[in-house]
Amino acid sequence: MFETKTLKAGSASISQEDQFASAVHKGLSLDNKCLPSWLIFDSAGSVIFKAITELAEYLPAACEFEIIRNHKNKIAKLISGDKFNLIELGSGDGCKTRILIEHLLNENFGFHYFPIDISSGAVTNLVRSLEAEQQDTHLQVTGLIGDYFDGLNTITQEGSKQNLVLFLGVTLNNMDRDTARSFLKNLCETLGPKDYLLIGFDLMKNPKLLYSAYNNQLFEKFNLHLLDRINQMLGANFNKNNFVQQGQYNPNTRAVESYLYSTCNQTVHIKSLDEDYHFKAWETMQTEQSFKFTLEEIESLATESGFQIEEHLFDSQKYFVNSIWRVAP
Fold first, then answer.
1. Residues whose CB is less than 8 angstroms from the CB of residue 315 and which lie 6 or more positions away in sequence, other chains included
2. Closest C-alpha among 245, 243, 236, 285 to residue 264
3. Letter string b/e over residues 174-209, b meaning 16 or more CB atoms within 10 A of that residue's CB
4. Domain extent for 144
5. How many CB atoms lie within 10 A of CB 17?
6. Assigned domain for 32 exists
7. Which of helix, strand or coil describes residue 73?
C-alpha cells in the first residue's frame, strides 16, 4: 500500500493559511523584524533546501548520512516486535531514511512508514518514488501532509504497534530553547514507553566552518524565496532585488543567524493583511536561526522534556549527533 493523505487540522488549530498570515504580520511588526524559517518551506523551498544539503560545505547532511550508514544495525535493534511504525517528522525527500528502509527490508522487518511534512510536493514525490522502487516488497507507506502532531495523533490512535520516530536534520535546531522544550514535551506525551525517538543535533564546532556552511548563493536563494512565498500567499509586493542575504554566527546565542538586508528605504504592502511595512536602508529581517549544541545541553533538554537518553550516535568527526531517546519511566 502506497498512499498520500492531507491531514485535517485539529479542532483547536487554525488553518495553515491563517498561521502563515499571523506569523508574517507578527514578525514584520517587531522592532527587529524576524520571520520563522518554516514559512520558506513550500514545494519550491524544499527543492532549494535539498540542493543545499548536497553542498560539500553543508556538514549536517553529510554527517547524518554517515551516522545512519554506520549505525543502521544499532537502530534496527531498537525494534522489539514483528511489526512497527517508522514515523518521520519533516521527511522532505526521505533521502537519509531510505538507507534505513532498505536495511530494515533486507532484515525482513514488517513495518509501515509514515513520512509527515507540510510540503505536499515533497510527500507526494517521496511516496511515488518509494512505490516505484519498493512495490515488490512488503513495505507499506502512508505520506501525511500537514502538522506533525496531527499526523502523530492519527497514527498512534489507530493501534498499539511500537513506534520509531525519526526527527532528522536540523529542524529542532531552528527552534529557540523554549520552543524546542515545549515541542519535545508535547512529543513525549504523544509517545508510549516502548517507543523510541531518533533526533538530530548539530554540535558546536569551529565558527569558520559554520560561516562557510551558511553563506553561498543557494542559501541566499533559499532565504529570498521567503519573499516569493509572502507575495504568493498574501498578495505582497516584495521586490527580491532590494534585499541581500547574510548568515553569521552569534556567540551569545550560539546560533547561526540568517538575515535579509534591505538595500534601500522601502515600503512593502501586503494586500491580504491590508498593511504597509516599512524598511530602512540596511535594516535587517532575520529569517533563520540554527542553534548549535553541546552534549550537556542535549542531555538537559532531554531530561527537561521527559525523555531519557539511551545512546548518542556520532559521525567520525563528531560534528553531528543522532541521539536515541525514549520516554523516561
1. 62, 63, 64, 66, 67
2. 243
3. bbeeeebeebbeebbebbeeebbbbbbbbbeeeeee
4. 52-206+293-327
5. 11
6. no
7. helix
Tell me how far apart the alpha carbons of residues 138 and 149 are, in angstroms, rounded to a whole number: 27
Residue in 68, 166, 163 with CA at minimum distance from that of residue 116: 166
pLDDT band for position 12 (50/70/90)? Answer: very low
* Residue 50 confidence (pLDDT): 87
- Are the C-beta atoms of 256 and 214 separated by less than 8 Å? yes
Residue 9 is predicted with a pLDDT of: 66
Give yes or no for a contact between 236 and 267, defined as CB atoms under 8 angstroms apart: no
Domain assignment present for 276? no
Read off the C-alpha cell for 204. 558546536
State the DSSP code for 14: P
Mean pLDDT of 195-201: 97
Residue 77 sits in a domain of what CATH number?
Answer: 3.40.50.150
With a pLDDT cut of 70, the percent of the chain lying above it is 98
Q: Edge-to-edge strand order for the sheet containing 284-291? A: 243-250, 255-262, 284-291
Which residues are CB-neighbours of 81 under 8 A, at least 6 positions away? 161, 162
> Is residue 248 in a domain?
no
Cell of 202: 548539530
* Grid cell of 282 as nine digits: 540596511
The reported pLDDT for the residue numbered 267 is 98
How many domains does the structure of the chain reveal? 1
Q: Which grid coordinates are listed for 309? A: 537518553
The neighbour count for residue 317, using CB atoms within 10 Å, is 12
Rounded Cα–Cα distance for residues 277 and 261 (Å): 14
